[in-house]
Amino acid sequence: MKVRVKWVEEVSFLAxxxxxxxxxxxxPPSGGGRNxxxxxxxxxxxxxxxxxxxxxxxxxxxxxxxVRDCVVEVDAERAETDPKVFTKIHLHFIVTGKALKxxxxxxxxxxxxxKYCSASIMLGQVVPISHDFEVREAD
Length: 139
Description:
This protein is an alpha+beta fold. The protein has 2 domains: 1-38, N-terminal domain of TfIIb (Single Sheet); 40-137, GMP Synthetase, Chain A, domain 3. Helices cover 32% and strands 37% of the residues. It contains 3 helices and 6 strands; from the N terminus they run E-E-E-H-E-E-H-H-E. The strands form 2 sheets. Strands 1-2-3 form a 3-stranded antiparallel sheet, with no helix packed on it. The protein has a 3-stranded mixed sheet with strand order 4-5-6, with helices on one face. Strand 1 and strand 2 form a beta hairpin. The longest helix has 23 residues, at 40-62.
């Protein structure tokens, strides 16, 4: 896997993936940026969450669960001083579907966290990552 990151101006960078997709990263105005895109650490968190969410949906659908929606709200804390690494990450899954069984959703989240999500397994080596979830009935 390859990516390319090109400095645009000030603290703006254009990241391009091997698959041809691009994302502009930028810093806050207080740091010389224009707030045109997510910060690199936000991208790291979004990537990890996307990886985990992909796994959970895939596992549920493979098990023929009638899942209709999945939203993950992430709360992460960072160190106060440099390097401002993540010190704690919590993922709260809100899974909506028809007659979803909580134990099935819980198993999908656990499989993602412990077996399939490369990003969260890698980050979990250096930062505690916790999960919880709620199941909502679809209309």
